[in-house]
Specification:
About 40% of the residues lie in helices and about 15% in strands. Helix 2 packs parallel to helix 9, helix 3 crosses helix 8 and helix 10 packs parallel to helix 12. It binds pyridoxal-5'-phosphate. The site of pyridoxal-5'-phosphate (PLP) has 14 residues, from helix 3.
Amino acid sequence: MTAFGPNAPLFYDRPLDLVRGEGCWVWDAEGTRYLDCYNNVPHVGHCHPRVTQALCAQAGRINVSTRYLHEAILDYSERLLATFPVALDRAVFVCTGTEANELALRIARTQSGHSGVIVSDFSYHGNSSGLAEITTGLPHPEPFSASARAVALPDPSRWDGSSEEMVRHHLALVDTAIGSLQEAGYGVAAVLFDTAFSTEGLLDVPPAYVQGVADRVREAGGFFIADEVQAGFGRMGDAMWGFEGLGIVPDLATLGKPMGNGHPIGAVVTRAGLVDQFTKDALYFNTFGGNPVSAAVGLAVLDALGEDRLVERAHETGQYLQQRLSDLSSRFSCIADVRGRGLFAAVEIIDSKTLPDPVACRAIVNAMRDRHVLISRIGPADNILKIRPPMPFGMDEVDLFIDALEATLAGLDGAAR
Ligand SMILES: Cc1ncc(COP(=O)(O)O)c(C=O)c1O
């Protein structure tokens, strides 16, 4: 038991041993079935037959490193790029979201000639030392990088004045961050934002703010990197990519998790002008990124998304989910706020003094597990329920989830109004 390193902090007080999955359902070793309202990696559904068949078929033909020609990666690049604005016309393949963000930062730094990076406070972008140093979202032993600045995000649920004032106030913080990076001699290479602002608590950040940040960073000679690891591939229901809902076209977009439905594939999507110059300056070689099996899997995920109408369905189901959660919030005083779009929802839990209640939040997550429904928690105060199911999640699954949550909340001491 002790031979396995500490790379897997487990969910739940009673961790789960899952042995099988299908669509939005998973089964444990005892044969108990759980409704999966949490996992975004099996994006088009656990063990989607189209994806597993594509994976097995290609693995049975050939899989090699990316130093050889292979048609599937060309087909996949074209199909993937067709989902992006025309300005973004190059894809570079990697294996994880971490690698994608590392590569995007490398490109941004070398092409801007600057090293400074702006991130949002309490964001998370990956597990390398370079990303840990610019992360305030999860604990890490590395000191926060001298060449990074973490800015507070505008959060409408915590702002009393007008939206315009809130945006103005928070853009002034970005101006200060840019000024301080320039004064310290780092300049600004990039801003790196998760376009769902998920680790931050799935905040409802106004597009005007994000557009203002993009303008300021570009004015300073830097690039906008949209981290689509959480929001991408239609999760938010209104579009394929999170940046579309924010009204911007990034200079670089980074993809991961849902891209391979569990197979490790990621990408940086950017402009030819940026990556072609980078390729002249650096030999970038990624042994596994975009290998034939990964390309076949990536194509099958795009096929499944289209054939099963999963993005449109995420929009419809997401509206119903928000409506049912709002209804619950009017009946349970422990719910301070409900937010989200598509198949990504956040429910903020507070105590009787209206303070964040991480203890109750944790109890709810564990009680839901005992009712055979899987969810998790996010946010700086660890008091936000995180609901982010596989994309085939439909109206019936919303009803099952809401029934379980309602019964759980009713069972919490003093929670019911
Ligand atoms: C927004 C975001 N970016 C990047 C990553 C890193 O992805 P990976 O764990 O595949 O390296 C994560 C992981 O949770 C993430 O949430």
